[in-house]
Design a protein that fits this description.
Shape: globular
Structural class: alpha/beta
């Protein structure tokens, strides 16, 4: 990866409980491709990451509150997983509204593992094909999404993967999708 994302602004939306490797590896991939990355959250200060949802990982400094930004501030969005992280985001109206508007804009979004839970809450999976961690697939289906069990799935700029084992393919695909830029905005069915 070289400069595919030079000049692109990527938002990572996460909160406490984010799976560390699902935050750090994609962040590193897009930064190495030249992107400017901003860590958004629902609270200021630091967020606590986790390793395998059980062991505390590192903390990460929040750059901006999701309530203080606009979709227009960014070119792409990353939604890492961890069980607790998306569960915290999906009960925050600012986070859910931001995700809904971002997907509606047609700008590319990458989400891994439990990250699609926030997409479900934002009601943006209807008619879309994606993958996720097995435990949330019923939620995706109930929200009108089509779930497949594949390493990486893309649907009109939405790139999803199942778990940390898929990170190499996920990181490569999000760089590609983020470089491609805006896709046709999805239509509600």
């Amino acid at each position: 990866m070289a400069d595919e994302l030079r000049g692109r602004r990527v938002a990572i939306l996460a909160t406490d409980g984010v799976e560390q490797v699902e935050l750090t590896q994609p962040r590193q991939a897009v930064e190495q491709a030249g992107a400017q990355v901003t860590l958004l959250s629902i609270h200021t200060g630091q967020i606590q990451s986790m390793n395998a949802d059980i062991d505390k990982g590192d903390t990460f400094t929040v750059d901006r509150l999701v309530s203080d930004v606009s979709v227009d501030d960014f070119d792409a969005l990353l939604l890492p997983g961890g069980t607790v992280n998306p569960d915290g985001l999906r009960v925050n109206s600012d986070a859910v509204g931001f995700v809904r508007e971002f997907v509606g804009s047609g700008k590319p979004v990458g989400s891994i593992c439990h990250g699609p839970w926030t997409l479900v809450e934002a009601d943006v999976v209807r008619g879309r094909t994606l993958t996720s961690f097995p435990s949330i697939r019923t939620d995706i289906r109930n929200a009108g999404g089509n779930v497949v069990d594949e390493e990486i799935v893309t649907d009109q700029g939405l790139a999803t993967s199942r778990d940390p084992n898929d990170l190499p393919a996920f990181c490569s695909k999000i760089v590609e999708e983020f470089a491609e830029g805006r896709h046709r905005a999805p239509t509600k069915t």
